[in-house]
Amino acid sequence: MTPDEPNRADLGKDPARVSGMFDQVAKGYDRTNVVMTAGNDALWRAATTRAVAPKRGERILDLGAGTASSSASLAASGADVVAADFSPGMLAEGERRHGHLRNLSFVQADATDLPFGDDEFDAVTMSYSLRNVNDPKKALRELFRVTKPGGRLVINEFSTPPSPLFRGFYRFYNARVLPRVARLAGTNGEAYDYLNESIAAWPDQATLSAWIREAGWTDVAHRNLSFGIVALHRARKPGSPS
């Protein structure tokens, strides 16, 4: 595959293909997201930041950080934030935009084999990226491992709208409209074909909550945003903070 040829990931979620696909869309990624979500991405990011509730002096992992928009939002609290992603192209774009923030660092990382020690972080979070991991249950266990006892988990991910009527409209939009919008925005439309497929194949809110519990987390809860287009999942690692 040549550097200019669109990289098309599939539901096999081969890490190299998924990473390569995100490398190719990195430059226009944020712009395309604004267009596709009609600006709701900013509202979802703000909700995620509130759920993480970062505090000055805490150490927070933003896994699947992409261009680090969510990481920068967390870092505004004064917490020390690590933006981790397996796409070097996305990290490079994030560092270009937000590298001036002294309390934000960038690490290339595989979600299923994190390069961090046990009990390192006060909070861990992922936004719209757990779905792209080839073994999401293992990623949830890795997040559990690197979180301090009493620490917090926040997962914001595309989900299943509860209303059958709205769910039908949403699936039509994802299948027919979203890739065309991506192409008009100057982005690899085939990447957004994959996005639609990955959303359609992703489990609903109750199933993801069960996966989180299986990984060892407690106090598992979620709330829907934008009629269930995305769901904000929260949990805690058992134990008391040191």
TrEMBL record:
Q: Which UniProt keywords apply?
A: Menaquinone biosynthesis, Methyltransferase, S-adenosyl-L-methionine, Transferase
Pfam families attached to this UniProt entry: Ubie_methyltran
**Top-level taxon of the source organism:** Bacteria
Tell me the leader sequence span. none
Note the PROSITE patterns from the entry.
SAM_MT_UBIE
Name the InterPro entries on file.
SAM-dependent_MTases_sf, UbiE/COQ5_MeTrFase
Residues reported in the UniProt entry to bind S-adenosyl-L-methionine: 67, 85, 110-111, 127
Q: What does this protein do?
A: Methyltransferase required for the conversion of demethylmenaquinol (DMKH2) to menaquinol (MKH2).
Q: Which family does it belong to?
A: Belongs to the class I-like SAM-binding methyltransferase superfamily. MenG/UbiE family.
Protein's UniProt name:
Demethylmenaquinone methyltransferase
